[in-house]
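Extended Data, panel c. Modelled sequence:
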Amino acid sequence: MDDDYQPDLSGEGGPTFSELSGEGGVLGALFMTAFGSPFLGAGLFTLVAGVGILLNEGLEGLFLIFFSLPFIGVGGMIVFGGLYNIGISIGIIRQKDNLSTPPTNIQSQSQTFLGISSESVVFSNPLVINTESLKKEISLEKSNELPREVVDLLSSSKEFWILELSPGERFFQMHIESGLIEYWVDGAMQHQQTGNIDDALKYLESIIFEEDVQQSEDLVDVFKQQLEQSIQQQELDFQLDNEIKSASEHLVKDSETIQTHSGIGIGSRLRVLLNNGFPMLVFILFGLYFFTPLGAIMDEVFEEEMPDTWCDGTNHYPVTVPITMQSELVADYDTVNEETMSERMDNRNTNTDSKMELAINGGVCNYQYRVGDTQGFEFTYRLDHVTNIDGVSILVMDHPLGLTNGYSGVTIETTTDNGSNWELQYSSRFMFGEYERGATFEVVHENFSYNEWYRHQFDKTVSNVTHVRLITAIADQSEDSAVSFSALRIDAEGDYDHPDYRLCNATWDGRFVNSTSDMIEWPVVGSLGC
């Protein structure tokens, strides 16, 4: 134990934060508030718009809701910090002067501690210990000594530790990374300082009654040595952490500690957070502002909203062959074994509109399957009833949000025995739609048109079909290997004797001739209106 440590017994601390802030603090707080307000406002506006779209139109609003949350969180934190500091600076919020060291006398039990009871301050027995990962009670042989188990436990702490003291509701705590040291009594913070392990131990020794000075000194020295080793390792770990994580951890941990211990001392913790995290927050927000295509995103969402009846299960066209999606696979050719190998890979398009069931059986949507790298895609459809079929028709609409849409090449196979044997019925090596950087087959078929069905008609009617399999090549879309289309249908025998129809009332009586359904020939414009 160092003999030169002299606690401040005068009760006269340094200037408080409010005294130091002055006019410069007001101006800085105003700047913080003004800086954070646009981000908070943009986040709230986007959140309201997303909720409106979610309630009135569909799940597309979830994108806006989640997109708004970072702006609301970061902008709100900066605005709150600015307003809080303004309140402190102008005197609306009064802050406790925590910088003075409380008077204490470790040799006498008759002295008082800031007007609190004169009993000796000792560790609670059983000792209650809180760290970032656990809360534990340990029985003590002596209430002024820390056993080895406690030393080991505190040494393993990476973020903060709290020791409960007696008598009354007292505790002593240290936030390891920021170096914030605090002593609390009955819900009020009596002492606060920043420093290293030496400072924390010196102050802890000054308030713990020493029954056996030498034994206490030896144990505290061990405690100090192990904690210093732990801190050195933690400092190496913290160098690997990025500043964003550090700021987030400060906010969460400080909030938890404040809520646990009466909520007093918000100002001091907020200052630590702002001092450590504010420069990085400024950097993040500027990065979001300059490098995120906010204008393009907002234009797409608000000016080109999803059309009505898209991706909602509405029947847009007659379906003579109901089907069920059986598998969606990527297909690569094995040159060694000279065979196609198919496997399931996660679709990188995780939007709610990219679901096959929304683009078959009368539905129109924006189905897209894209992965990092592959040679092709394989789709297998099970016919709900064994049927004679003449081909497969695929629709590629102008994408409502202006994204690239289309498929490169198509091979169609059928089976009459539930997939035991497959027979080739059709193959085309053209592009149907658009690609970005390249495609397996880049020449667009001369008869292809957006917003019109393309009929991939077989050379003959195939009888008693149980399954249909489509294999396509790849088109580069969103910098991935992809295939996409708006709708797909299996065409029964005789369907090609009639034009493509658009159901205006979403119902069909099953007849092309003398039909009572409200339908028109398929429109060639980029909408689904009648």
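Residues 99-240 form one domain. This feature is highlighted in the accompanying rendering.
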